[in-house]
Design goal:
The chain has helices spanning 2-11, 18-25; strands at residues 30-34, 38-42, 51-56, 60-69, 75-81, 84-89, 93-97. The protein is of the alpha+beta class. It has a single domain (2-97), classed as SH3 type barrels (Roll). A hairpin with a 2-residue loop joins strand 5 and strand 6. The radius of gyration is 13 Å and the shape is globular.
Length: 98
């Protein structure tokens, strides 16, 4: 039940403006980069959430400074994806600074 409610909430998230993004990240330009193969981008921090994209090896996305651990103990990063908040697993990605 909780995952269903979270899925519904995440699907209703509105895009972030550049100003809101700077506020969320504190002006820090940190990114998450695809490290191996491809990593699916989800609406929430876990495999039960809807897939909304793919972060390929070498591609990057802005890290929004939040993390979560799923029911398997896997760390997830909150990122900006197509102007929205989204989540990607740490298993196939890494944090980088530019």
């Amino acid at each position: 039940m909780m995952n269903e409610n979270m899925n519904e909430l995440n699907e209703m998230i509105v895009p972030l403006s550049d100003e809101e993004l700077e506020e969320v990240t504190g002006g820090k330009h940190r990114y998450i980069e695809g490290d191996t193969g491809k990593s699916y981008v989800h609406t929430g921090p876990g495999l039960d959430y809807k897939r909304i994209g793919v972060l390929h090896k070498g591609d990057d996305a802005r890290f929004l400074g939040e993390t979560a651990i799923d029911e398997r103990g896997v760390l997830w990063y909150m990122i900006r994806w197509d102007g929205r908040k989204a989540w990607v697993s740490s298993r196939y990605t890494k944090k980088v600074k530019y």
